[in-house]
Amino acid sequence: MVVTYKCFSCEKKIKEEYVKKKIRCVYCGSRILYKPRSITTKVKAI
Predict the structure, then answer these.
(1) Number of domains in the chain
(2) pTM of the entire structure?
(3) Residue 26 maps to which CATH number?
(4) Residue 33 clears pLDDT 80, i.e. is over it
(5) Average model confidence (pLDDT) for the chain?
(6) According to the model, what pLDDT value does residue 1 have?
(7) Residues 11, 38: Cα–Cα separation, whole Å
(8) pLDDT confidence band for 28 (50 / 70 / 90)
């Protein structure tokens, strides 16, 4: 399974192979990366 991360600054997708070398976005240099959720979860407020 291929894991992709997303840059918080420029919103571009980054492959896991680039994250293993350095935890930085290869496009803008940002250090904030996250895994986007594939399934959205709805929570009902009380």
Answers:
(1) 1
(2) 0.65
(3) 2.20.28
(4) yes
(5) 84
(6) 63
(7) 16
(8) very high
Encoded tokens for 34: 């996250």
Beta bridge partners of 33: 7
Indicate the SS3 state at residue 34: strand
Q: What is the DSSP letter of 38?
A: S
Instruction: Compute the chain's Rg from CA coordinates.
Output: 13
Token pair in block for residue 21: 């070398």
Q: List the domain range (segments joined by +) for residue 14.
A: 1-46
Mean per-residue pLDDT for 9-27?
A: 85
Cα angle 28-32-35, degrees, rounded to a multiple of 5:
110
- Counting Cβ atoms within 10 Å, is residue 6 exposed (0-12), middle (13-18) or buried (19+)? middle
**Degrees, nearest 5: CA angle 37-44-35:** 10
